Every structure is written in structure tokens, then in C-alpha cells.
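#data-curation
PF: Archiving a pair of folding outputs for the training set. Convention for this channel: one message per protein, sequence first, C-alpha cells after, nothing in between. First:
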Amino acid sequence: MPLPPSGSEGLPTDDPPGDGGPDEAASFIAESVAELALLARRHKLGMLVRLLEMAQLEAEERVRLRSKRRLS
């Protein structure tokens, strides 16, 4: 079993190794959902547009709050 990098022994993190972590995931989701919302809007799928826009707002809010917390 590999040892953790020096200085991080026993410290929990929000970022599991190898997947980019929750912040990167939220950013990716926000971008992807924005594109899907545009596609849904183009095809006049109103309810899907609203749901996708809500998902986009939620993902963007998570990124914004995490960035704000890191600056504090």
C-alpha cells in the first residue's frame, strides 16, 4: 500500500485521488448541463430547460461557495 505524500498523513480531504474532486466535478456538470439546456431550448423542451437550468445553477453555486471558502 503506497504511503500518502509527506505532510498529509491522516488528514481527510474532499478530493478523492484520481477523479479531480468535487469542485472539478461541479464545474464539469455546470458546463455540461448548460450545453444540454441550450439543446433542450432549441427543441422547445420547456420543462427540460427549466430542470437543466436549475441543475446548472446548483452546480455553479457549489463552485462559487467553495471558491469563496478557500479565499477566507
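PF: Second:
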Amino acid sequence: MQIVSLTVLATSLLICCSLANGAPSRDKAVSLILNHYAASDEPGIQYTVVSESDTVFTRSVGLSNVASNMALDASHTMAAFSMTKTLTAIAVLQLVEQNKIKLDDKVIAYVKHPYDPDITIRHLLNHTSGIPNPIPLKWVHLAQAHDDFDDQFELDKILNEHPTVDFQPGNRYQYSNIGYWLLGSVIARASEKSYSQYLSEHLFQPLNLSASEVGFKIHDKNNHANGYLKQWSFMGLFGRLLVDAKMLGENESGWRHVKDVYLNGASFGGAIGTARAFAKILQDLLSTNSILLGPAAKQLLYQQQVLSSGTGIDMTLGWHVDELEGIAYYYKEGGGAGFHSEMRIYPQNGLASVIMSNRTSFDSRQILSELDLHFVTTKKSQPHTDK
């Protein structure tokens, strides 16, 4: 308890100093917070803050591999899980720009499904379709089995197991992984490419992001962080009852290693990459001359959505919406066995942030808010590069 108290006191002092001394003291305060949440012998954290033109702050702490005591660095990839949904939304809006789809097109025109035929692409994007959201903990397969994986077969199986909507489309908000899985099929049908191929060619390559930085496969096993569950946590103790036991590896100094897996539906949570790569995507969205989206499509990405009744929801066509001490931001969180992450854009401050950790029990919302406050309350942030 004494160590924690000293850490909090030291952080408070550094925050006060940062107001007077600017970026150097601010960066020390942020680094101290990161060290507090990921000790040198624990799974780690990647954290990056960018403006339109600069990397404002970036640092990695903790371990990529607990058993071998390998430090986590900025080049290690991690599973992003539901952060992928914003990438899927960007791809859909690109296809809208290309006049290959329309937001109010019926989904049934692109992909067969058992739900209400009036469900539109817009309903899927803003989670108002009424499609159910069963817990997807077992919708994964081992990376070594990926060559034999059949996405359409697995999607059809889930649709058959959960064939009924929970409410009429547009009547209320309800998060749905199945909805975004269907969007992957829409993208494939409209673009005449596989979902992963389309995103590689139209999101990653235009930003000069290589397959070693972001994609839908583990590009280099030696440069991919191990995912972990805390041994003495609910998931660590009872994970074998909730997920396929073959996904769980050995205990490593109090951390249960989660074997490398891919989600069955890439479009709702399959992206794998670094915080730096996701930050580069956000950096493009901050730009007035975005490579990924034209002005009209980018405006749609941030447009607040409404129900059929006209009631607004805290959702856009790809982002959730919230505030940090009165400062509006758009965010997407991602979490699953072994990893947890979140990315945000603060339009008022011209900043974006990404945090990724290779542990399931990681409170990305609270920790990212604590870190981001050091930057979004500053009128002009000075660039910083991790060495």
C-alpha cells in the first residue's frame, strides 16, 4: 500500500510540475502512470498519442512474453478485437463513396440471412438492427488451424443458432457482433474481394502500413505479443468453462498464457496490429485531406445516429460517443481472451490515442482516460518519440 501511495503522490507532483514545465514533465507523469499499470515483470501496454502531423507521445512498458522475460516494444502486434469494427465501418463508407452500396440498401440484397428483410446496412453499422448478440467467447479457432477455416460455414452456423431478431429494426440500440460479421460479407460482395483483401488494399496499403504492422494474420510469431489471463482472476480460474480448453496454455509466473487464436468473423473483431499502426489510421482521419475518406464520408463516420422515433443514441456509423471532463470524443474498445484495447479521437483537440495491452483484465476505459487527460487539456501538444 505504501508503494501505491508513493506512486500516486509522485504522479500528482509531476502533474503539477507539468503545468509549469510543459511537455518534458508531462511525459514523465504519463510514463509513471504506465509503469504503475504494467510492472517490468507483467504483461505490457502500448500507448500512443498523435496529432494530424506528429506523434505526440509513444511508449511501451511491461512484457511481450512473461516466460522469456521479453520486453514489449512498439513493433509487437496484438489482437485488437472489436476495434476492428471501426475499420469495417470505414470500408463500408468507402464503398458508399464508390457508389457500390448505399447506406439504406437492404442487407438481404448482398448476403442471405434469417432476419427481418428490412434491415439495412445503416442498421448494422449503428447497432439498431435488432440482431441478437450472443456471447462470442467460443467463436475462435487456433491460428494453426486457420488454413482450413471456412468463414461462411461458421457464419451460417451462428445464423442458424440465433435466427430471430430481438426487436424491429431501428427501434432501439443493441450491440451486435453478428451484425458486423454480416457487414464483412457485404463488403466482400460489393467489392468482389475478400474482406481482408479489401481492407489490406484500401485501408492499410494507402497508409503504407505493412503486413508486419497490421492485418488479419499473425505476420511474425516472434514479434507477436503473448496474450494473458491473470491466474487468480475469474477468467483465469474458470476460463476453461467459458472458452475451449485447448485455447489456454501454461501458467507463466501467475499469468495464464492464451494460445494464438483468430476470431471466426474477421470483420467484427479480427484485426491484429500495433498501437502505432492504429494511431496512423486515426491520424489520417484527423487530417483535412484524409486518404481513406472524402469529406462527405468522413462526416458520415462521425454523424450521430437516431432511432426510428427520432431519439438520438451515443453512436455514429462506426464510433461510440462519450466525454472526458466535458471534452467530446469518439471511441472503440476491443477486448477478448488475452488482450484489451481502445482507440479514441478528440476532434476539439485535434488528437487521437490508442492503448493496447496483452492482458484480458485491463481497464482500458479508465486507464486511457487517466492518460489522455495529460494531453487533451493541453492546447498545443509537443511531439515526443520513444527511444
